[in-house]
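hey can u check if this looks right to u? its 228 residues, i copy pasted from the old doc so theres a chance i mangled smth
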Amino acid sequence: MATASPKHPTEQSDLIALKGRIPLIGLTGGIGSGKTAVGKSLAKLGAGIVDTDFIAHQITAPHGKAIALIRDQFGPEFIGVDGALDRSKMRTLVFENPEARKMLEAITHPLIRQETILQALKLAKDGVLYLVFVVPLLIESGNWQGVIDHLVVMDCPEETQIERVVQRSNLARHEVERILAAQASRQERLSHADTVIKNQGSLEDLEVQVLSLHQKILQIQKDQLSSS
């Protein structure tokens, strides 16, 4: 696509320039539900993936765009010896202090939005079949209604999520449970879904569901082309 990148994009509404020109797909689900795995599978099928969690890690990595702002706001003790955000210390703070969470989000959210828009416009220009926005808190944010064409929700039992996250990270069970409690409930996500991918079986079963989703999105693409 020939759409030019805005110089200082600040809102998801900048993505409206792509509306109707390429399918815009939202992919969400709780921690440990399998969003990353499905995103990678869709990328192999020709999708452009914009992962906001990955972007959040980028901007809080050593020399990331948010590091200086976080240091100024919260103090150097929240920056590790490697120059990255001390995620464990910050996680403890924001769970105990809602105002601290708001201050952190005031720093990170505009930077994440900006990079999300820039990546999406570039991928669309590069000719991907469709765009998938992997957003852990898509429903909670309230910012995506009217932007995406189709919402995909990853679903699995909460106990499965907890086991996966404990196995792959340094988080204790009670920390994972606290993260889950701060996210939308399983029922709330499912009530918003256009497509539900159940990730509690084999990898083969997951791939079958991904292929079915891919075909569904290609039909959205055809419908857009026929109406343009």
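The longest strand covers residues 150-155.
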